Amino acid sequence: MDFFVQQLVNGLTLGSLYALLALGYSIVYGILKLLNFAHGEVYMMGAFMGYFTLIALGGAASPAVPVALVLVLMFLAAGLSAGLLGVAIERFAYRPLRDAPRIAPLITALGMSFFLQSTALLLFSADVRNMDTSELISPATGIHAGPLDISLIRILVIVSAALLMVALARFVAQTKLGKAMRAVAYDREAAEMMGIDVNRTIVAAFFIGSVLAGAAGVMVGLVFDRVWHLMGFTAGLKAFTAAVVGGIGNIPGAMLGGLLIGLAEAFTAGYISTTFQNLIVFGILIVVMLVRPTGLLGSPAIEKV
Amino acid sequence: MAPVGVDEWVARLEERRERRGGIVGRALAAWDGVAPVWRLVIFAALVASVPFLTDSDFVVRVGVNTLLLAMLALGLNIVVGWAGLLDLGYIAFYGFGAYTYALLASDQIDVHLSSWLAILIVVVACALLGFLLGLPSRRLIGDYLAIVTLFFGQVFVELVTNLDRVTLPGDDEPVDITGGPNGIAGVDPINLLGIEFLTPTDYFYLSLVVLVVLIGGLYLIDNSRTGRAWRAIREDPLAAGLMTMPVKRLKLLAFAFGAAVAGLAGSIFAALQIGVFPRNFETPFLILIYAAVILGGAGSITGMLAGAAVVGISFELLREPDEASWIFYAGILLALVITVRPWTRLAAVLAGVVALGLALHAVVGGIWPETVAGSPQADWTFSSAIDGWLLLPEDPRTIGNWAFVALVVLAVWLSQAGPRARLLALVPLVYLAAFVWENRLMLDPSVTRQLMLGALLIVVMNLRPAGLFGAKRIEVA
What we know:
heterodimer, A: two-stranded antiparallel ribbon, 12 helices, B: ABC transporter involved in vitamin B12 uptake, BtuC, 3 domains, two-stranded antiparallel sheet, two-stranded antiparallel ribbon, 21 helices, 69% helix
């Protein structure tokens, strides 16, 4: 029982991280029909920015400012730089190809992902960095009662991820920019004719998605203590799978998919073997595509001619 | 007759374009006049003469690798260039082929099939695997296919790394199938028609023969019913379906065909390397194949050969500091010559770059002598000139990193700026690029090669999506 609860907590943590990442994929895909491979690398860069902010503030062992402020600054720095990176990528690599055949931006995205990964390798070397979170926030804090054994940082991560997701859902549903995003996703040309600034909307989508990715990067660094240049690629792949499983372009779907993939991975690791985590996720992807290609919450796509 | 997928106005584009004059134009015209068979013969003869011109083992090895790369590019071209499907797991078929051959012809499970049989099994198995992988991808639309195949490539590497302690049901002892991270060593050499292929030179000729046969076959397919149908579904699957083309089956066929070619190349690779290791089949190599396809121009056989030659050879040469320096400075000069017109402006930019360097070297070096205390990484023709022109700090790593970031930011900004700002910023950009190259990129050649591949994909797709030889796609609304 204890073990089961532990895996459940693991799965929820992992799942909320995947969900955050999946949201970024889903927003961009919904609007541009572009599979942004570089999204995982944006997340990796966010994690590095969080790490360097922590180091600049004196490191985990002796932070120069209160711990809460350290965390806030880490999230701010990572979110902001990841957001700017996302916008720069859109501007430089994807915008010129917006009306090109579908395959062109995909290949560019692949190249961008590889370029960012190599850049991180060049700038930060291949070392795996540790945030030493246990020195920042003692693992003794948090809930430790009966079968429950959740450290404070995990609670923080799950709660803040949930808050971010709710905020995003409300943003898309209620604000003017959110409405513009939905309109552009539905029909870009018609939206443009209605006076919506399509470029601004797309930039906003990239910015928001990338901020979420940056935040997810810091969270991963805090919980799993590993920040390195290859962390983005597989995580991005799984997050995209989560978005597909939930129904691409669908925000609640991305959250559901993320949680499902996270739980599946945690339970596979706990009960079967860590080596087959990715294989299981791949299996889920294939099954969903065979049984329900539109994803769990997606509506059937009608092809417009 | 107009090629499929292009309307008449577009098809006549080539005719309307004026014939180039001069020696180049005449040479091109003469080349166009040669029958395809003879072009292939000339190509084969030229490549075959390479081992005669040099005794260097290195050159032959680079040659074999480039020939294998050309084979893979041709195979990927079927899927990406002709059928228009983005297959990002292509490297896994190559790996699957190599591993299957290694299993069928080594001590690993103590099977030593004859080369004919082993290669035949490999090719069929790869085609089947490609077929199976293509099946679940929802209507085989680009993005879903991309994600499934990319994931497949990752899972493949993970599987072969971990399948060294598999417990089969009914057997207590774990079985070692793939050798795990250590791979499979001691693969049998290929033995065909009584010839045993042992040295790299042997494999050079084997690869060349296979490549030539492949080119011939692909040329015929390209002009066959199936080839035309592939191009039709690339341009517009919906319209092709309405013309009663079996779109789904054609896509799966392209997929299986590409996979089979990868398997063939994989078995040669396994025999050449006398072993297979998971590291051979990771993402960087996939990017290399894509770089060759994209640079050459997806859809064109000639393009694949040119792309593989340029990417394969320069990728190998970037390992050597001297050759890498040549490639870098010549590349910059070439880019300037192509983009900056007229020549007076080009001369001004070049003079500006030289003047800026000399001035910076004199002023900054005069104030802080440690900024010029280093020396160029490569010892080549222009080393001393560069030493007198470029700031070379003694410990360049950190400053080089910052300069790299600055270079990327400047390049991104430049791509958005107006023409006048662009011309002005070109001078510092070139200098900064040289600075980053000497002070940072040369220190880590392997990372530099990866960076360049990534950048190549982005730049080619943005500037010239048709690559060197690809047909220009003109959208007719």
